[in-house]
Write a structure and sequence with these properties.
Bound molecules: S-adenosylmethionine
Helix content: 25-40%
Structural class: alpha/beta
Largest sheet: 8 strands, mixed
Shape: globular
Distance between the termini: 45 Å
Strand order of the largest sheet: 4-5-3-2-6-11-18-17
Strand content: 15-25%
Number of helices: 16
Number of strands: 18
Radius of gyration: 22 Å
C-alpha cells in the first residue's frame, strides 16, 4: 500500500492543491494509514492523555452527571446516552464501574469512527449487538448465546456513527470536535488566503507542502463575519465539519435531550491573535509533533474548538470550565473521602489506599486551570 503522502500527491496531481481539511481528514482517518484508523489513541500507552485516561475519577463524575440528567428527565427507562468519539472506551468503562443510579435503565452507545478502536471496546465492556440498543429491555435467553443483554441494563453497544434513535437522548463527547477536519485561512494584505496542500520536493522523496491561494468568496465572506481587525499573517480555522456534526448531534438528542461537549475551546478572534502553531497542534507518543503536513498519518492533528462557530448552529445553553463543572458535580467530596481513606490506610499500602491517593492526584490534573480544568464544557439542551 502506498504511504499517505503518495496517495495525497496523486490526488493533488489530478485535482490541484487540496484544502487543509481534506489532508487532515486523510491524515487522521484514511483506512490506508490514517492516524486513528491505524490505532493512534488517547491513553498512557497511547499518544496523549485525556480526562478519562487520567483515571476513573472523571468517569465517576460523569456518572453523577448522568444521574442528574436522568432524574431531570423523570427517570426514563430506557435512558439512552450516546458517547461520541469514544476512543478505546475508557470513559464508558469508568462511568459503568461507578455504578450510577441510572445503570439499570441505561443504554450506553459508544460511537467511534475508528474500526481499530471500536475493536477494543469489547476488551473491558460487555458489548451487545446494536439491535438490542433501541427496543425495550429483553429477557435473558440461553439459546441466543453471548451478546444478549439481561432484562436490566446497562446495555452497552458499539457503533461507527451517530444512531437514529427516538429522543430524548444525552449526547456526550470528550475531545471529539478538536479532531474534526477544518479549513485554514490566512489574512493577506489584500484579503483572505486559503492554506492548501501542494507537492513539494522534500529532498529525494515526495513531500506535501503549504501553498497559499486566494480564498473563494464564500470562505472570505464567512471569515469576515467571524473576525475583524486581524493582523496580516494571522490564521483562523473554519470548522464546518464540527458545526455539521453538532447539527446531527442536536437532531440525535431530540426533544428534551442534551448535547454536552468537553474540549479545549476559544473564539475565532482569540485564535486569530495567537500564533497559529499554538492552536493548530500535532502530537504523537506524548510529544508535540511538527507541521501538520509532516509525517502524515503518524501524528494527531488538532485545534482549539471555536465556540462562536458552534454557537452559530444554535446558541449554547451553558458554557463553563471543566473545573467549574466538576466542582458542581461534587469532586471536592470525592477528594476529601480519598484523603480520609489515604490517612487511615497509608500504613497498609493496600489497593484501597493506593486508589484513594490516586484520586487526589487525578483531581489535581482534572481541575488544573492551565490544563484539563481549563477545558470548556459546552452544553445545549434541546
Ligand atoms: C482525541 S480522541 C478522544 C477519545 C476519547 N473521547 C477520550 O477522551 O479519551 C478523538 C476520537 O474521536 C474519534 N472520532 C473522530 N471523528 C469521529 C466521528 N465523526 N464519530 C465518532 N468518532 C470520531 C477518533 O477516532 C478518536 O478516537
Amino acid at each position: 500500500m502506498p504511504p499517505l503522502v503518495d496517495l495525497l500527491a496523486g490526488r493533488i496531481a489530478r485535482r490541484g492543491p487540496l484544502p487543509f481539511d481534506e489532508v487532515m481528514e486523510a491524515a487522521l482517518y484514511d483506512p490506508r494509514g490514517g492516524f486513528y484508523a491505524t490505532g493512534g489513541a488517547a491513553g498512557r500507552h497511547g499518544d496523549f492523555v485525556t480526562s478519562p485516561e487520567v483515571g476513573p475519577l472523571f468517569g465517576q463524575l460523569v456518572g453523577r452527571a448522568l444521574d442528574r440528567w436522568w432524574t431531570d428527565l423523570g427517570r426514563p427507562d430506557p435512558f439512552v446516552v450516546v458517547e461520541a468519539g469514544a476512543g478505546r472506551g475508557a470513559l464508558a468503562r469508568s462511568v459503568l464501574s461507578s455504578e450510577p443510579a441510572c445503570a439499570a435503565s441505561l443504554r450506553y452507545l459508544l460511537v467511534e469512527r475508528s474500526e481499530a478502536l471500536r475493536a477494543r471496546h469489547a476488551d473491558h465492556l460487555d458489548i451487545v449487538g446494536p439491535a438490542f440498543a433501541f427496543g425495550p429491555p429483553l429477557p435473558d435467553d440461553d439459546d441466543d448465546g453471548p451478546g444478549v443483554p439481561t432484562a436490566d441494563g446497562p446495555v452497552v453497544v458499539s457503533l461507527a456513527d451517530l444512531p437514529s434513535v427516538d429522543g430524548p437522548v444525552v449526547v456526550l463527547a470528550n475531545e471529539l470536535l478538536d479532531n474534526l477536519a477544518f479549513r485554514v485561512l490566512e489574512r493577506g494584505a489584500d484579503g483572505w488566503l486559503e492554506v492548501r496542500a501542494a507537492v513539494g520536493s522534500g529532498g529525494s522523496s515526495t513531500a506535501v507542502v503549504e501553498l497559499l491561494v486566494p480564498a473563494d468568496d464564500r470562505l472570505a465572506e464567512y471569515a469576515d463575519r467571524l473576525v475583524s481587525d486581524v493582523p496580516i499573517g494571522a490564521r483562523i480555522p473554519v470548522q464546518d465539519a464540527a458545526a455539521g456534526w453538532l447539527r446531527r448531534a442536536l437532531d440525535t438528542a431530540g426533544r428534551g435531550g442534551r448535547v454536552v461537549l468537553i474540549d479545549y475551546a476559544a473564539t475565532t478572534t482569540m485564535l486569530a491573535h495567537r500564533p497559529w502553531a499554538d492552536w493548530l497542534r500535532t502530537y504523537a507518543g506524548h510529544e508535540r509533533g511538527g507541521h501538520p503536513f509532516d509525517r502524515l498519518g503518524a501524528q494527531d492533528i488538532t485545534a482549539d474548538v471555536c465556540v462562536d462557530q458552534l454557537a452559530r448552529v444554535r446558541p449554547l445553553t451553558t458554557d463553563q470550565t471543566q473545573a467549574e463543572w466538576l466542582t458542581a458535580l461534587g469532586i471536592e467530596d470525592l477528594v476529601e473521602e480519598g484523603r480520609r481513606v489515604w490517612t487511615e490506610r497509608a500504613h497498609l499500602g493496600d489497593l484501597e489506599a493506593m486508589r484513594a491517593r490516586s484520586r487526589i492526584t487525578e483531581a489535581e490534573a482534572l481541575l488544573d486551570p492551565n490544563g484539563l480544568g481549563g477545558f470548556r464544557v459546552l452544553e445545549w439542551t434541546t
